[in-house]
């Protein structure tokens, strides 16, 4: 393969001196709010993206002004766990140093800030660092934030699963000192070949982003099959003994390009818990060595597995670990939702899961959510846990503090609103106005859209039943829409592709049903389908399963062939 064919990012990484590039110079330049084009790729490895407010783009252009550049920063918080002290710091930064004045909980159990001027980036990273938080490797061609079922205090099993998620996250961190030098003013290391080496990643890191999750069955809140690499906990009583390893999942695709497709991970088999890191490193290094570095659209692990074939890939994992997979153990994969309200843990402490619409923690009229969480953080002795459904758990509340926490949650509109099963199971990505790739609205439009779907469910008499509905502003799939019973994926302003047929549990993908339609058509389609569903469904049959059994769409078994077929 000739070198010229490599994707531009490969050269950028090679020439970046382990992710330094000219970020420092860019930071010191006040004439523009932007970084150079090359550095815009490198800053992702440091946890942030250059953006501009798309609502203001045309107006700025007409005024012949530079776009209103600002930055989105994403933190890395393994398993979504942070202390009240950390939360208070996170909250203070949002209020003082960002123009969005909000904290955005993400679909991978961490938080983002939007609207950071370039001049505030360093202060923010230093403020986070003082609270032992960081943003390195939250984005970029590396292993990202590792997800884990966020109820670890509920059982010994959860605690053990979280410990593995944390280890996976810590062990797969880049070793470069670039982050510490640029943002934390650590002394500059003179890098020469062989002196500062990335032992796992190498100089060019991975061909593309890499995502891991640890699931604790029956919960599949982390949507384990949508990850590059997933570990499904296998227990003997409340002792974690190993994992069913799954690999090759991912959601991103491009409208109209059949070579790209979402995919659910394959089951590889059972591994012993103590071998987890060894297997993770083997899968990651195979992807490093075999992954496509020419075309970034085809460079995720899912394409590597499809290209080389499951058997060859599995044999290579076994060769690199020196361990054979055992047959997959029987585990039940169940609900992807969060358990709202109070739940008591085995240690007698209480955990309160709060629904945060669109993951947006902000003071809204009559609902000062951000203030509410701040007030709770001031008195809370346990921790905060961000969920992969963009919600938050106030975890580890002693019985004596329960009343006070609940009173604060109610006073600030964090509790008390009726959340239907469908709303509680549904998510939307950020999309407009910050996401550069959005083709349509998602976060800002989804709540109203859901109300209309709820009205239809009510009309057909099954509002008590949850349907997993997910909306994204484009086919990159940040809210995992292709694993939703009803997936809506932006095509153009006000227009979406409608996908149907995924399972409720996240074990089967959906398939395109109608293309490029507007709200009225979407609702009309759903109205007709809901009518048929309540008439024809079998006992306990979910909406997603019904749409496949009744032939509304065909099941996607082998994504590479079936998703577009
Ligand atoms: Fe994502 C790119 C937001 C989870 C697949 N994602 C982006 C960017 C950074 C847009 C960009 O590249 O300029 C979005 C920033 C929007 C903004 O203004 O904040 C963005 N992704 C998000 C978040 C914040 C969505 C949310 O509403 O919570 C999620 C942050 C997760 C985190 O904390 O790490 C987020 N993104 C996901 C997921 C879901 C998941 O990982 O479970 C996916 C699908 C799974 C997957 O990776 O396959 C996802 N994001 C993508 C892709 C497509 C990747 C691909 O394989 O093709 C892109 C575009 C890209 O990488 O080129 C993307
Ligand atoms: Fe942006 Fe598309 Fe991701 Fe939504 S799915 S946040 S529109 S990249």
UniProtKB/TrEMBL annotation:
<feature type="domain" description="Nitrite/sulphite reductase 4Fe-4S">
    <location>
        <begin position="168"/>
        <end position="324"/>
    </location>
</feature>
<dbReference type="InterPro" id="IPR005117">
    <property type="entry name" value="NiRdtase/SiRdtase_haem-b_fer"/>
</dbReference>
<comment type="similarity">
    <text>Belongs to the nitrite and sulfite reductase 4Fe-4S domain family.</text>
</comment>
<comment type="pathway">
    <text>Sulfur metabolism; hydrogen sulfide biosynthesis; hydrogen sulfide from sulfite (NADPH route): step 1/1.</text>
</comment>
<feature type="binding site">
    <location>
        <position position="429"/>
    </location>
    <ligand>
        <name>[4Fe-4S] cluster</name>
    </ligand>
</feature>
<dbReference type="InterPro" id="IPR006066">
    <property type="entry name" value="NO2/SO3_Rdtase_FeS/sirohaem_BS"/>
</dbReference>
<keyword id="KW-0479">Metal-binding</keyword>
<dbReference type="InterPro" id="IPR006067">
    <property type="entry name" value="NO2/SO3_Rdtase_4Fe4S_dom"/>
</dbReference>
<keyword id="KW-0408">Iron</keyword>
<dbReference type="GO" id="GO:0046872">
    <property type="term" value="F:metal ion binding"/>
</dbReference>
<keyword id="KW-0521">NADP</keyword>
<dbReference type="GO" id="GO:0000103">
    <property type="term" value="P:sulfate assimilation"/>
</dbReference>
<dbReference type="InterPro" id="IPR045169">
    <property type="entry name" value="NO2/SO3_Rdtase_4Fe4S_prot"/>
</dbReference>
<dbReference type="GO" id="GO:0020037">
    <property type="term" value="F:heme binding"/>
</dbReference>
<dbReference type="GO" id="GO:0050311">
    <property type="term" value="F:sulfite reductase (ferredoxin) activity"/>
</dbReference>
<dbReference type="Pfam" id="PF01077">
    <property type="entry name" value="NIR_SIR"/>
</dbReference>
<keyword id="KW-0198">Cysteine biosynthesis</keyword>
<keyword id="KW-0411">Iron-sulfur</keyword>
<feature type="domain" description="Nitrite/Sulfite reductase ferredoxin-like">
    <location>
        <begin position="70"/>
        <end position="129"/>
    </location>
</feature>
<keyword id="KW-0349">Heme</keyword>
<dbReference type="GO" id="GO:0019344">
    <property type="term" value="P:cysteine biosynthetic process"/>
</dbReference>
<dbReference type="GO" id="GO:0009337">
    <property type="term" value="C:sulfite reductase complex (NADPH)"/>
</dbReference>
<dbReference type="GO" id="GO:0051539">
    <property type="term" value="F:4 iron, 4 sulfur cluster binding"/>
</dbReference>
<comment type="function">
    <text>Component of the sulfite reductase complex that catalyzes the 6-electron reduction of sulfite to sulfide. This is one of several activities required for the biosynthesis of L-cysteine from sulfate.</text>
</comment>
<dbReference type="InterPro" id="IPR045854">
    <property type="entry name" value="NO2/SO3_Rdtase_4Fe4S_sf"/>
</dbReference>
<dbReference type="GO" id="GO:0004783">
    <property type="term" value="F:sulfite reductase (NADPH) activity"/>
</dbReference>
<keyword id="KW-0560">Oxidoreductase</keyword>
<protein>
    <recommendedName>
        <fullName>Sulfite reductase [NADPH] hemoprotein beta-component</fullName>
        <ecNumber>1.8.1.2</ecNumber>
    </recommendedName>
</protein>
<feature type="binding site">
    <location>
        <position position="478"/>
    </location>
    <ligand>
        <name>[4Fe-4S] cluster</name>
    </ligand>
</feature>
<feature type="binding site" description="axial binding residue">
    <location>
        <position position="478"/>
    </location>
    <ligand>
        <name>siroheme</name>
    </ligand>
</feature>
<keyword id="KW-0028">Amino-acid biosynthesis</keyword>
<feature type="binding site">
    <location>
        <position position="474"/>
    </location>
    <ligand>
        <name>[4Fe-4S] cluster</name>
    </ligand>
</feature>
<comment type="subunit">
    <text>Alpha(8)-beta(8). The alpha component is a flavoprotein, the beta component is a hemoprotein.</text>
</comment>
<keyword id="KW-0004">4Fe-4S</keyword>
<feature type="binding site">
    <location>
        <position position="435"/>
    </location>
    <ligand>
        <name>[4Fe-4S] cluster</name>
    </ligand>
</feature>
<dbReference type="InterPro" id="IPR011786">
    <property type="entry name" value="CysI"/>
</dbReference>
<dbReference type="GO" id="GO:0050661">
    <property type="term" value="F:NADP binding"/>
</dbReference>
<dbReference type="Pfam" id="PF03460">
    <property type="entry name" value="NIR_SIR_ferr"/>
</dbReference>
<feature type="domain" description="Nitrite/Sulfite reductase ferredoxin-like">
    <location>
        <begin position="348"/>
        <end position="409"/>
    </location>
</feature>
<dbReference type="GO" id="GO:0070814">
    <property type="term" value="P:hydrogen sulfide biosynthetic process"/>
</dbReference>
<dbReference type="InterPro" id="IPR036136">
    <property type="entry name" value="Nit/Sulf_reduc_fer-like_dom_sf"/>
</dbReference>
């Amino acid at each position: 393969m000739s070198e010229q064919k490599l994707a531009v990012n490969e050269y950028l990484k090679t020439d970046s001196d382990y992710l330094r590039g000219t970020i420092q110079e860019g930071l010191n330049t006040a004439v523009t709010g932007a970084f150079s084009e090359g550095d815009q790729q490198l800053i992702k490895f440091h946890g942030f993206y250059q953006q501009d407010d798309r609502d203001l783009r045309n107006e700025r252009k007409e005024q012949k002004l530079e776009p209103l550049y600002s930055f989105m920063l994403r933190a890395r918080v393994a398993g979504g766990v942070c202390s009240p002290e950390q939360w208070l710091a996170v909250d203070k930064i949002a209020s003082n140093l960002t123009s969005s004045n909000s904290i955005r909980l993400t679909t991978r159990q961490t938080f983002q800030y939007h609207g950071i001027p370039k001049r505030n980036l360093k202060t923010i990273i230093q403020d986070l660092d003082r609270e032992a938080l960081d943003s390195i490797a939250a984005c970029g061609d590396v292993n990202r934030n590792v997800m884990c079922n966020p109820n670890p205090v509920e059982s010994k099993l959860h605690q053990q699963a979280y410990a593995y998620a944390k280890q996976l996250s810590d062990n797969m961190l880049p070793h470069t000192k670039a982050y510490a030098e640029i943002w934390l003013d650590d002394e500059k290391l003179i890098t020469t070949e062989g002196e500062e080496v990335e032992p796992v990643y190498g100089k060019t890191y991975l061909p593309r982003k890499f995502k891991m999750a640890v699931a604790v069955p029956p919960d599949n809140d982390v949507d384990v099959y949508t990850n590059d690499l997933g570990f499904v906990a296998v227990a003997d009583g409340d002792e974690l003994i190993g994992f069913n390893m799954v690999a090759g999942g991912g959601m991103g695709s491009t409208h109209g390009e059949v070579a790209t497709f979402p995919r659910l991970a394959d089951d590889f088999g059972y591994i012993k818990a103590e071998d987890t890191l060894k297997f993770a490193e083997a899968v990651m290094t195979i992807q490093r060595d075999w992954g496509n570095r020419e075309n970034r659209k085809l460079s995720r692990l899912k394409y590597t597995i499809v290209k080389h074939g499951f058997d060859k890939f599995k044999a290579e994992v076994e060769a690199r670990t020196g361990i054979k997979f055992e047959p997959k153990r029987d585990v039940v994969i169940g609900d992807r939702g969060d358990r709202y309200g109070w739940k008591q843990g085995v240690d007698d402490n209480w955990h309160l899961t709060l629904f945060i619409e669109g993951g947006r923690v902000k003071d809204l009229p009559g609902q000062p959510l951000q203030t509410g969480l701040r007030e709770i953080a001031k008195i809370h002795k346990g921790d905060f846990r961000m969920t992969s459904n963009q919600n938050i758990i106030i975890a580890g509340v002693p019985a004596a503090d329960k009343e006070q926490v609940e009173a604060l949650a109610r006073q600030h509109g964090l509790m008390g609103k009726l959340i239907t099963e469908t709303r509680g199971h549904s998510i939307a990505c950020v999309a407009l106005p910050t996401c550069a790739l959005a083709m349509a609205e998602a976060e800002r439009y989804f709540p109203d859209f859901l109300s209309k779907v709820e009205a239809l469910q009510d009309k057909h008499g099954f509002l008590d039943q949850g349907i997993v509905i997910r909306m994204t502003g484009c086919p990159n799939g940040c809210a995992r829409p292709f694993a939703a019973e009803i997936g809506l994926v932006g095509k153009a302003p006000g227009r979406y592709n409608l996908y149907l047929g995924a399972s409720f549990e996240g074990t089967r993908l959906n398939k395109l049903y109608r293309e490029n339609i507007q709200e009225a058509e979407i609702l009309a389609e759903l109205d007709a389908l809901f009518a048929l569903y309540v008439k024809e469904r079998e006992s306990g049959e979910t909406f997603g399963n019904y749409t496949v059994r009744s032939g509304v769409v065909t099941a996607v078994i082998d994504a590479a062939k079936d998703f577009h077929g």
